[in-house]
Write a structure and sequence with these properties.
Length: about 400
């Protein structure tokens, strides 16, 4: 079934029509951005005609999506199952052999990635929320997808992001991907509770971080050294709240990340090794009850600014860069799956700054959870409601 299409006159902005900012609702605060364009960038509109279509509506709370080498899609479902979906929408049976997940709250079976050598080793890696003694943690596991594609063989947990949360079941983070050296980036949340929130600023805790580990779960060679006493060697960056999206820029090879803010202050960060991204010391958001967070400051020496932020929030989850050329003006743009915003945000970047924003599929009224580019150059996005969308040139 085909849905919205778009076709407009190409102008001088790389095929984008410049418009007023797409956000016109009042912000939650009077906080001022650190630089022009850090929020509410000019709107843009895709000029190349494109269509979106529902590939399947039969998924159950999908959370992570990635491509297999043959172009089919491997998808996690939050309650603890994986599925393979063909490009025509055929859904596999649930893949068995996956360790039990804690699916309470925001937990469950989360991000997934495929080994670059999958054709020879059939290895897959995933993040999930796991019950452990004393609470629950964000954990990383791996296993071999059987030749029959019905089960995961020899599954094992390779990393646990300690300390555990005693009661809380929020802010697991949960994305995972390979870097260019064959090591893994993993995002972890700070678990939300006021007691655990400050751990985002502690280099001795693995929560509220971007981690970089080997495929056996050890600290990856070349990680930055944090100056705090007892700093964990697996840390790549710190000061994160609930990072549910990570992606590698196709030109620079650098890491980018999306992060849930509180009431206001959703972020897009250009993540660099060894840097501190500020939460909860600096933020463009406030508490859900309207209270000021900490000292109510948005800038501090030694802490990085977000490339972009939203207030009010859109609840950014999975992200991906468009590396194809079938829709020329999308090349190297960042696409952001939005939950409460119920759209896919397209961010046009120039010199690591956002110069344009477009909202795609807003009429679908779906909570978009993750997005990836398929081998066919189309974008594929999953929603909490169980839909898989394909977005392609008309």
């Amino acid at each position: 079934m085909l849905f919205a299409s778009c076709s407009d006159t190409i102008d001088d902005n790389g095929g984008n029509n410049t418009l007023p900012p797409v956000e016109n609702n009042a912000a939650n605060t009077n906080y001022q951005p650190a630089f022009p364009g850090q929020t509410r960038a000019n709107g843009v509109k895709t000029s190349t005609p494109y269509v979106s279509e529902v590939v399947t509506s039969a998924l159950s709370a999908p959370w992570g999506i990635t491509s297999l080498p043959d172009g089919r899609l491997l998808i996690t479902e939050r309650m603890g199952t994986m599925r393979i979906v063909s490009n025509t929408g055929t859904l596999s049976n649930a893949i068995t052999g996956i360790p039990a997940v804690n699916s309470g709250g925001q937990g469950g079976l989360l991000g997934i990635c495929v080994d670059p050598q999958f054709t020879s080793n059939r290895m897959i890696y995933w993040v999930f929320s796991e019950n452990v003694a004393g609470g629950n943690v964000t954990s990383v596991a791996k296993g071999r997808l059987s030749n029959s594609e019905t089960t995961v063989e020899n599954p094992g947990v390779i990393y646990r992001a300690n300390p555990s949360a005693n009661v809380g079941n929020l802010h697991y983070g949960g994305r995972i991907l390979f870097d260019s050296t064959g090591n893994l980036f993993v995002s972890t949340g700070e678990r939300s509770d006021l007691s655990t929130r400050p751990l985002a600023q502690s280099a001795t805790a693995a929560v509220g971080k971007i981690l970089r580990i080997t495929t056996s779960g050890q600290p990856a060679p070349g990680n930055p050294a944090f100056t705090q006493s007892g700093a964990l060697p697996e840390l790549y960056s710190m000061g994160h709240r609930n990072p549910q999206g990570i992606a590698i820029h196709p030109i620079t090879g650098e890491l980018w990340q999306s992060e849930h803010g509180p009431r206001g202050g959703d972020e897009i960060n250009h993540v660099q090794a060894g840097q501190n991204y500020g939460w909860p010391t600096i933020t463009y958001g406030i508490e859900y009850n309207g209270a000021t967070i900490g000292d109510g400051i948005q800038q501090k020496a030694g802490m990085e600014q977000p490339v972009y932020y939203w207030d009010p929030v859109i609840s950014p989850s999975g992200i991906t860069f468009y590396k194809g050329n079938s829709i020329p003006e999308w090349q190297n743009n960042l696409f952001v799956a939005s939950l409460s915003g119920m759209h896919i945000a397209r961010l046009v970047l120039d010199n690591n700054k956002v110069i344009g924003e477009e909202r795609l599929l807003a009429s679908e009224n779906q909570r978009f959870r993750d997005i990836t580019q398929g081998l066919d150059n189309a974008l594929y996005a999953v929603t909490d409601g169980g839909k898989l969308y394909r977005i392609r040139k008309q």
